[in-house]
């Protein structure tokens, strides 16, 4: 029995599964967008209620 990295089908070597550039992009969008939106929403709420600016754009 061969190891998982040495598989071949009809003489062709089959590479291991890996995350592609499109997979990285979708993962970043899927995880990063909600965090970005929630962070901006929290900053807006704090700025509106308390007058505190805690966003990165407050430094500029």
Describe the protein.
With 60 residues, the chain is mainly α. The protein has one helix at 21-49, and strands spanning 8-9, 12-13. The protein has a two-stranded antiparallel sheet. The radius of gyration is 23 Å and the shape is rod-shaped. A hairpin with a 2-residue loop joins strand 1 and strand 2.
| H/I helix tally | 1
Low-confidence stretches: none
The H-and-E topology, N to C, reads as EEH
- Span between termini: 62 Å
Overall pLDDT metric? 82
Which terms would index this structure?
60 residues, mainly alpha, two-stranded antiparallel ribbon, 1 helix, 2 strands, 48% helix, 7% strand
Quick structural summary:
The chain is mostly helical and 60 residues long.
How are the secondary structure elements laid out?
Elements: E1 8-9, E2 12-13, H1 21-49
Antiparallel strand pairs: 1-2
């Amino acid at each position: 029995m061969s190891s998982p990295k040495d598989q071949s089908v009809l003489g062709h070597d089959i590479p291991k599964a890996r995350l592609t550039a499109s997979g990285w992009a979708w993962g970043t969008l899927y995880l990063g967008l909600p965090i970005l939106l929630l962070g901006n929403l929290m900053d807006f709420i704090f700025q509106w209620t308390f007058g505190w600016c805690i966003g990165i754009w407050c430094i500029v």
